[in-house]
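Name: Haloacid dehalogenase-like hydrolase domain-containing protein 3
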Amino acid sequence: MRFTSISFSGKFKLVTLDIFGTILRLQSDVGHQYSKAANKFDVHVKPDVLSRNFKDVWVEMNQKYPIYGVQSFGWKKWWETLIEKTFLKSISAELSRETVDNISQYLFEMYKKPENWELCDGADDFINNMLDRNIPLVVLSNFDARLEDLLLKMKIRHYFRFVIASYNVGVQKPDAAIFQLVEEKLKQYQDLVHIKKNEILHIGDSPELDFISATNVGWNSFLIHGNRDAVVVKYPFVDKNCIFKNLNEINQQLFC
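Structure predicted for Haloacid dehalogenase-like hydrolase domain-containing protein 3:
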């Protein structure tokens, strides 16, 4: 599948975008940010240890309490539990309840601040290229209740016609229902109501959550991934021509 700038504009009438890892990323990795927070309260843990254990706990929490705990104890408690479990797996000493709460609160405040986030490579140019071609943009992301506020603080919310965060709708990718919610939402906009499935492009950084799930419902999809060959080996049905290192590569191949 190859697109020129002209064919891209002609084929796609709507672009939906994942957020984390596609449009926005953290200024530094989770391990370093968690380590920095812990240091404030005299708890010292190596960033690589925290990163490794964070990934394990993330998988565990998503299996036990999916969609950031929307059906159980809510997103804030979900993150507090994840933070506590990550540190307990990373250190040998016991942590007091007060220390855990202090670290959690510090991290909550940290992630509120736009200076801890940045646009992914090529995101700004891609957004402008879409708007220049009158292609509307929509956010479709597995994210907690803070997504709208984050987009506002990063001064990019106004670029998107609407935002669907999994926590707010109670369903998440790869469930087909979240894609159907987008299709239903389009009916509320006079200029979007006639858009067909095969005229929608979804872009994200997960083969399973973004590329495969979008194509399974009849949409088009581009995958953001740093290792095209590894993706094709693991997922041979993924078109390698639809895999890009970042949005900057999409800009260079389609709009130059």
